[in-house]
Amino acid sequence: MLAEIKSTDSEKNTAKKAPGGFFDRLIDSRFLPLLTRLSHLLTERQVPSYIVGGFIRDMLLKRDTADIDIAVSSDALEIAHGVATALEGKYIPLDAVNRIGRVILTGKEVPYASGQCELDFSTFAGSIEEDLRQRDFTIDAMAIELSRLKKSCAGFTIIDPFQGQRDLEQGIIRTVTRSAFESDAARLLRAIRLAHELGFTIDGETETLMKRHCHLIAGIAGERVREEMLLLLTVPQTGAVLTHLDRIGLLTAIIPELALEKGVGQPPEHFWDVFDHSLKTVAAVDFILRQGSWEYAEREALNMVPWSVELEEHFNTGVSSGSTRRLILKMAALLHDIAKPQTKAIDSSGRMRFLGHAREGATASNSILERLRFSNKEIKLVEAMVEHHLRPTQISQSGILPTQRAIYRYFRDTGDAGVDTLFLSLADHLATRGPNLNPDGWREHTRIVDYVLNEHSEQETLVSTPGLINGNDLIDIFGLSPGPGIGNLLELIREAHASGELKTREEALSYIRKHLENEAE
Q1: What is the pLDDT at residue 146?
Q2: Angle of helix 484-498 relative to helix 471-478, nearest 10 degrees?
Q3: Comparing C-alpha atoms, which of 293, 326, 299, 297 is closest to residue 311?
């Protein structure tokens, strides 16, 4: 398709002409009514306006997108507000200083079944070519003049002063100017993401600039780094993305604590040092969640991992803005051994130990994610997964399935992160053994996880029914005083009920009576 749109460059290479009707082949026809209406609205206001950036890139690559960037030679906030009113959309002022506004459309104006489309309006001064020069990469530095979008589309033009179409054809990420990363260091992360999303190569000079300026990422607001990190974690085969970030110097610039993991050896069952193991654990998460491959195991190993429609929905569930359980599990995988360097010790028998690394790692991950402005809910999930990532392999011994009580206590302690932690333990297993994976050990681990998930589902059904006894029973029947002790006794009943030890009210009362008698002795 790119070959169709090439034409002879003008001397200044500022525009590429397309024949009449070309627009229909360039842009998904579902967008034509919306863009034509936008063209009329802005032409009536006599506002020079251009479609810019990623929308053009994605249309040329025939990639779905529901976001359209529009540059206007006027106050973008005022224009966005007017467009929102005309199209019955929601207006959001994104940046009052730089005059950037957003319009969120739903309903009949939306070209996609997703039900939502975002129009981002920005203000430019001078010429559109000057505006494009301020953008990040050549493949995003193209523009289409909205006023030219008439029914005939005759004389349609792609403004391409930096040969973005050529770089699209060749699959190259290249900065528009050498100062691109100094202007906005978040572009360092965006370059990596685009390369892996599109399957492109970063231009050699651009990558050299990235290595030179990687330290600048530390000066970016935590909120922006969080947003870019979540987008990076969305890319399948995230392990390769993180490896690329590390090669540039960005990963440890964002999370300096990870640098301490490099070269930290582990016991013989581990194939990699702590740092490489952490990156491999993220890659293994992609594998067991059916989002990527794992070069060290056959499909048979994946088939052993429990999976269902319900589990897929669980990991696709949103946590906070821009994040899902799938992405937060990857973050926990990256950080799960963050405290191993400072807890490493050799005991009297010569055995290497990392005592307390899970607990200390939970504290460290909390600090890291707070610094990167993750939400409290995201932080608590990661904290719980890191603290309890060893539990799934500790609740059963020597091939014996865990007891009902052990399963209850596991989910009581892990809370909302219980299911996620089970899958973290599986990814941890794969990233520990690597090419030395023992099929029998893996089969046993997946069998335990499957059993725990099924038993937990049954326990949830039990504990969701009305309790066998309540606090008033304990006060009235046993003469107890209100207070924390009542809650502790009720928790004992819930645990015994969930584990199948108690089934009736009479059994629960007898259980409490014996417990109180034992305490009195």
Answers
A1: 87
A2: 110
A3: 326
Query: Which of 427, 521, 431, 507 is CA-nearest to residue 469?
Result: 507
Query: Three-state DSSP class for 435?
Result: helix
d(CA 136, CA 133): 8
Q: Which fold has domain 259-463?
A: Hypothetical protein af1432 (1.10.3210)
Tens-digit pLDDT profile for residues 246-305: 999 999 999 999 999 999 999 999 999 999 999 999 999 999 999 999 999 989 999 999
CATH class of the domain whose range is 2-170: alpha beta
What's the confidence (pLDDT) of residue 467? 66
pLDDT at 340 over 90: yes
- Domain boundaries defined on the chain: 2-170, 172-254, 259-463, 471-520
**What's the CA gap between 410 and 438, in Å, rounded?**
26
CA distance 227 to 290: 23
pTM: 0.83
Separation of first and last alpha carbons in the chain: 85
Q: CB within 8 A of 148, min separation 6: which ones?
A: 39, 155, 156, 157
Q: Tell me which fold the domain 172-254 belongs to.
A: Hydrophobic Seed Protein (1.10.110)
CB 176 within 8 A of CB 135: yes
Nearest residue to 76 (alpha-carbon basis) of 39, 131, 120, 133: 120
How sure is the predictor about 396, in pLDDT bands with cuts at 50, 70 and 90? confident
pLDDT of residue 1: 31
